[in-house]
Amino acid sequence: MVNKRAVDIHLKSKWVEIYADLFDQEVNFIDLVIPEIYSPSKYFAVIVAKRMTIDKIVTAMRREFDVNLFVEDLDKIITVNDRVADKNYVVLFEVNFEANENKDLKKISASTLDRKNIKGITLLERLLLDVYCHSRYQGCHVLDANCGTMCSGSRLSVYSGGGVPCVSWNSLNSELNVSWVPVNNSGNNTSRAVIYST
Question: pTM score > 0.85 for this model?
Answer without folding.
Answer: yes
